[in-house]
Amino acid sequence: MGTAESKQYLLLRDKPILVHTLEVFEAMAEIADVCLVVGEDDVSRCEAMVATYGLHKVKTVLAGGSERQHSVRIGMAALHSDVNWIMVHDGVRPFVTHEAVRACMRKATLTEAAVMAVPVKDTIKQVNEAGVITKTPERRSLWAIQTPQAFRRSLLWEALERAVQDDFLGTDDAMAVERLGVSVSVAQGDYTNIKITTPEDLPYAEFLLAVRDRERGTEQ
């Protein structure tokens, strides 16, 4: 993002991006508990955010690990033992809709593992180290993966434990599950479920927030 502040704490209108994201799940009856995993130096301020914004479903705020999948393991271990289904979501995806989350949940309960995704719109090229195109994959088979990603808890735990044993690091949670030979299904999401990552994402995020407010009749 190129800012001194971590992207999840940047203000989107009047609230940190992370708070906008958490409020999506706070409002869903299907969500029982939320475990928020953050940087070690951010635990106390995130606990303060949770209290300030009344995020009652956030039961614990924990310091994460050096890699994404390490943080997911820490969060999973903190969940109550009777939680059988979990979702992992990026804190900088505040525009995921309730309908999309539910679609991912339904798919996971049928298949044990599901990810949110959208078909890619652009032609994708595989390029080597010299900057030369080596392959053009068939676009119809390509999907851009988003979050949330939903799993039976025992399955994801086994996958992450195996990843630790094998010293494997994946770019998302589904990769660890795929290594077990388990099929991961896709639930179609929305193109507006953006991951706010670079400076040009912020104006688009403001636009999406304004659109959402107009749809809800709460335009500011």
List the helices and strands and how they pair.
Blueprint: E1 11-12, E2 15-16, H1 17-26, E3 34-38, H2 43-52, E4 58-63, H3 68-78, E5 85-88, H4 98-111, E6 113-119, E7 126-127, E8 133-135, E9 143-152, H5 153-165, H6 173-178, E10 185-188, H7 201-216
Parallel strand pairs: 3-4, 6-10
Antiparallel strand pairs: 1-2, 5-9, 6-9, 7-8
Helix pairs in contact: 3-5
Structure description:
The structure is a single chain. The chain has 7 helices and 10 strands. The strands form 4 sheets. It has a 4-stranded mixed β-sheet. A two-stranded antiparallel sheet has the order 1-2. With 220 residues, it is α/β, with parallel strands linked by helices. It is globular. It has a single domain (7-216), classed as Alpha-Beta Complex (Spore Coat Polysaccharide Biosynthesis Protein SpsA, Chain A), CATH 3.90.550.
What's a concise summary of this model?
With 220 residues, the chain is of the alpha/beta class.
Give structural attributes.
single chain; 220 residues; alpha/beta; Spore Coat Polysaccharide Biosynthesis Protein SpsA, Chain A; four-stranded mixed sheet; two-stranded antiparallel ribbon; 7 helices; 20% strand
Taken in chain order, the helices and strands follow as: EEHEHEHEHEEEEHHEH
Would you tell me the overall average pLDDT?
94
Instruction: Tell me the name of the CATH class.
Output: Alpha Beta
What structural class do the secondary elements suggest? Answer: alpha/beta
Strand order of the largest sheet: 5-9-6-10
Strand content: 15-25%
- Biggest β-sheet, characterized? 4 strands, mixed
N- to C-terminal distance: 26 Å
Helix content: 25-40%
CATH fold-level label: Spore Coat Polysaccharide Biosynthesis Protein SpsA, Chain A
CATH architecture grouping: Alpha-Beta Complex
